[in-house]
Amino acid sequence: MRKIVVEGGKTLRGQIEVSGAKNSVLPLMAATLLTDGLSVIEDVPWLADVDVMSAVLNSLGSSCDYICGCLHINSSGIKKTEAPSALVQKMRASFLVMGPLLARYGHARMSLPGGCAIGARPIDLHLKGLEALGAEISIADGYIEATVNRMHGNQIYLDFPSVGATENLMMAAALAEGHTVIGNAAEEPEIVDLSNMLCAMGANIKGAGTNIIRIEGVKNLNPARHTVIPDRIEAGSFMVMAAATGGELIITNVITEHIKSVIAKLKEAGVKVEEGYDGVHVIGNKHLIPVDVKTLPYPGFPTDLQAQFMALLTLAGGVSVITETVFENRFRHAEELKKMSADIKTAGHSAVINGIKRLHGASVEATDLRAGAAMIIASLAAEGQTKISHIHHIERGYENICGKLAAVGAKIQIIEE
């Protein structure tokens, strides 16, 4: 078993660069199914999830090549419209190929998707939206099959501003006949990034980044070259690591507008954050102030940074409360933090954290991607050695995390045990 081993108590100092956004790369990769020819996506982190999505596209007939941080994808040779179940089960984002396949080829079949066990993330919003665009959908034996002659524009209202559903429907509507309006759409930066690439391919999309997106369908799209936005969740994770160790980090390749809620909460907790043109300068404080956090859809505090912030607040002097409103099963990391002496009580959607002076190293588990980042944060700040298992979760979303942290003073390595 591969594990991450951390010798805690080392102060992080130096400069660290954020990779391209994992949550943006995956829909961008799916979007290449909408066109023939070679598209190039730049600043792509090589992660387990990117590898899985590449395998999904290759299984359909695309050609994916990763060259010097760029993905070269040619979807001219699509031969199948069914994604292999073994791949779909590995990653929920693989469901994003459904919209493009339907819009381009009129058919898509795939198993119900897998991913991190952080709660029920139903795909009903995806399916209702695709049905509104004219698709006929059937579900049987764990598989979803959809067919359509051609997508037709329609008015769609999402009951919840789902990022995945918004992305799937944007891609499907880009080639639909007529006008589509997506109401209560997700507003995340990754939605804007997808819209920018689709527009570079020839799509007609307005309103991305607001809760109403308008799409005028076009007959065909062309290949494009596009650079991925920086990963705001990785940026936030590094900021919390600096704060938890009382360190000082200059974090580059950051769009600060994307992490305003995180900056605000760190400042409220007594951490000094200075914003620059291409990043942030974070200066930790040994006397952290307890704060209350409530996760919300963007531009609210991101659920993908909730676990990391919980690890930080275990060291704040007083009582903090975290309320999770997005996923109902996203406190599994609390039990792992308690193995390190953290004082946390969870009930329903809330966690009450009573800050302590020092965490202690232990053997813990990365129960999901962001929980894994929380374990790294806790282990960096803890006294003694921590061993983190199930690190495949961490490798889904953080590129060369051990190398990056070792370069700024962490004593961290991967071992085979």
Describe the structure.
The structure is a single chain. The protein contains 13 helices and 23 strands. A four-stranded mixed sheet has the order 21-22-1-23. Strands 2-14-16-15 form a four-stranded mixed sheet, with helices on one face. A four-stranded mixed sheet has the order 4-5-3-13. It is an alpha+beta fold. Strand 9, helix 6 and strand 10 form a beta-alpha-beta unit.
Largest sheet: 4 strands, mixed
Are there runs of 5+ residues with pLDDT below 50, and where? 115-120
Radius of gyration: 21 Å
Strand order of the largest sheet: 21-22-1-23
Beta-strand percentage range: 25-35%
Oligomeric assembly: single chain
Query: Whole-Å distance between the termini?
Result: 5 Å
Judged by helices, strands and strand pairing, the structural class is alpha+beta
Helix content: 25-40%
User: Count the strands?
Assistant: 23
Nearest-integer average pLDDT: 95
> Count the helices. How many?
13
Shape: elongated
